[in-house]
Amino acid sequence: MMNSTIAAISTAQGLGGIGVIRISGDDALKIADKVFVSLNEKKLCDQKGYTAHFGAVFFEGEKVDQCVATVFKAPLSYTGENVVELSCHGGTYVTKTVLRAVLDSGATPASAGEFTKRAFLNGKLDLTEAEAVMDIIGAKSNAAMRSALSVHEGALSKAINDVKEDLVMRAAHLCAWADYPEEDIPEIEFSSLKNALQLSKEKLNNLLLNYDKGKAIREGIDTVIVGRPNVGKSTLMNLITGYDKSIVTDIAGTTRDIVEETAVVKDITLHLSDTAGIRDADNMIEKIGVDKAKQRLSTAELIIAVFDMSSPLSEDDISILNDIKGSTCIAVINKEDLEPKLDIDKVKEVTENIVFMSAKAKTGVKEFEDILEKVAGTADFDSSSAVLSNERQRSLAKSAFNALDDAIVALDMGLTYDAVTVSLEDAISYLCELTGERVTETVVDNVFHQFCVGK
């Protein structure tokens, strides 16, 4: 309920220098006054917004901790409501005790994302800006953080609104011209209308084309490292992650299970899986590892196939080349510092993304990073540009794009302007849903359910 006053711990659980309990709602100041006493004993209800007050928090008549209470008054707060943030020492017991005191004094527990949901419902930010909050929190690289911050500050909203406003103007002109023929309304010029719709369609298409680049930066790429035993997969895994995650020995078949780790390479997050060497294994345990490797190979978004420069291609190598054909992959020719015996032409038949490295000597790293950027499509990614942040946004942008395409087809077929207007109104509706201007309660609940409690 929007008229209730909610509270939650807004900092990470566990030990820390500070813990913040956020209270938001009409009664935020009154409830805070029940648990917080300032040094000058003045009530928070009597204080101005954007002020901080030092004192202590009490629960059941006993002092819990020293505290700084920060006051924000509606509408100049994150949620647009009265807000008090109680900052005490970090720690599980202290923060939970302060929260319990606040809840016992009349607040209700905030649900996941409820503070940001209220900010959206109170018009403090639109739905794309709200969704960017979790992208900021979850950012694993500088580019991911900058991209999410750009969306949060309105880059995507502006791009969508520019297209929407132009379509609204075109649709209004079409409706007025059709409904009021007796009025002196400028006639619709076919070429001008079509060019405008083409331009709007192109803008949406650019957003759609950038989606995968943004996803690679924001969410990362599910990546599997494959190859026959002893080609250097685990050494490469350790080189990419920066520490000894996988066991490296001269004994073939050391890796039996899938070793997983996340690494950031040139602002691209790789969710890495180092797999068992693929070969015909007699050992039952190794065979299970090989089967897992093949299964992961079939589901990965990116395959890093490793080959030994110092050895001719084996039957197992040929089998791997056949398995990765048609996939998004990078072929790493490892042990480049040794005498070359590998038939490179066979590898080139499968992929043009080839890098020569010595994972052990740590050479070829820059070349690997450059090819990774090329394959991921992020080399020219502008983190300050408008980027679709999730599948909900992509789907609505695609629907708006298709509706514009229908409008242009209707124009080319010589259909009535009423038919064109219907398609334009569909496109406008999808764009309004994208930014949250027209959105169902179910969609809103689903968006904020993915947030953490306290945000």
Please name the defining characteristics of this protein.
455 residues; alpha/beta; Gyrase A, domain 2; Four Helix Bundle (Hemerythrin (Met), subunit A); Rossmann fold; 3 domains; seven-stranded mixed β-sheet; six-stranded mixed β-sheet; 15 helices; 13 strands; flat
How does this structure look, described?
With 455 residues, the protein is of the alpha/beta class. The chain has helices at 28-35, 92-104, 114-121, 127-138, 142-152, 155-179, 190-218, 233-241, 284-299, 315-324, 344-348, 365-376, 391-412, 417-435, 441-449; strands at residues 6-9, 19-24, 36-38, 51-59, 62-72, 83-88, 108-109, 221-226, 259-265, 268-274, 302-308, 329-334, 354-356. Helix 6 (155-179) packs antiparallel against helix 7 (190-218) and helix 7 (190-218) runs antiparallel to helix 13. It is flat.
Task: Report the sheet-strand fraction.
Answer: 15-25%
* Major sheet details: 7 strands, mixed
Number of helices: 15
CATH superfamily of the largest domain: P-loop containing nucleotide triphosphate hydrolases
Number of strands: 13
**What's the architecture of the largest domain, going by CATH?**
3-Layer(aba) Sandwich
Strand order of the largest sheet: 3-4-5-6-2-1-7
What radius of gyration results from the CA coordinates? Answer: 29 Å
* CATH uppermost class of the largest domain: Alpha Beta
H/E series: EEHEEEEHEHHHHHEHEEHEHEHEHHHH
* Residue-averaged pLDDT: 86
Label the overall shape.
Answer: flat
Give the CA-CA distance, first to last residue.
17 Å
Helix content: 40-55%
In CATH, the topology of the largest domain is named Rossmann fold
* Quaternary structure: single chain
Helix/strand-derived class? alpha/beta
Q: Give the domain tally.
A: 3
Q: Uncertain segments of ≥5 residues (pLDDT<50)?
A: 245-257
